[in-house]
Amino acid sequence: MPASKRPNKRAVLLRVGVSVVLLAAAAFVLARNWSVVHRSLELARGASIPWLVVSLLLVVVVYGLSAVCIGVLALHKLRLAETFLVELSTAFVNRLLPAALGSLGLVGYYLFKRKHTAAEATVVVSINNLVGITVHVTLLAGVLVFYPSVLHRFLDGRHFHLAWPVVSVLA
Predict the structure, then answer these.
(1) CB atoms within 10 A of CB 72
(2) Is 48 left (phi over 0), alpha (psi -120 to 50) or beta?
(3) Sign of torsion, CA 157 158 161 163?
């Protein structure tokens, strides 16, 4: 391999270091929440297989639609399968980083590596998130139109002290 094509030792050490730190963070989060993980595994053992299959199919559909949305918004051609895997990996990154910051960074980095400038990647990620917010608000509005009792239960006395900030933001 020519010297110009070999990875820089410092870059390799940095990648390994970051990977070790992220792996340690994942292990720490898993260890601190082991009781939750154990309970989740117990519940999964008793899960209905047909509903589990339906939920897994819906997860694939959601991440597939997200990958299609990124592909449509992208300014340069992206491979759908690769974009789908990046979107699926954001589900795991978001467990370690707060408030979808991980998915924003990961998708932005992916776009940057696929010949988008930093500004173009930021615009694509931002528009994708605006589309996601719009879809969620539309679904929420649809639920409230067809099932108004949900809003009444949401705003009853026990939950209102938690609900008023959400309602304020939506208004």
Answers:
(1) 12
(2) beta
(3) negative
Select from 132, 134, 82 the least CA-distant residue to 111. Answer: 82
pLDDT digits (tens, 9 = 90+) for 65-114: 999 999 999 999 999 999 999 999 988 888 777 767 888 889 999 999 99
Q: H or E element: which one contains 50?
A: helix 49-73
pLDDT of 98 reads 73
Predicted local confidence at residue 151, as pLDDT? 75
Q: How many CB atoms lie within 10 A of CB 85?
A: 14
Largest CA distance in the chain: 71
CB burial class (10 A; 0-12, 13-18, 19+) of residue 123?
middle
Question: How far separated are the first and last CA of the chain, in Å rounded?
Answer: 60
* Amino acid at site 3: A
- The predicted pLDDT at position 92 comes to 85
DSSP class of residue 114 equals T
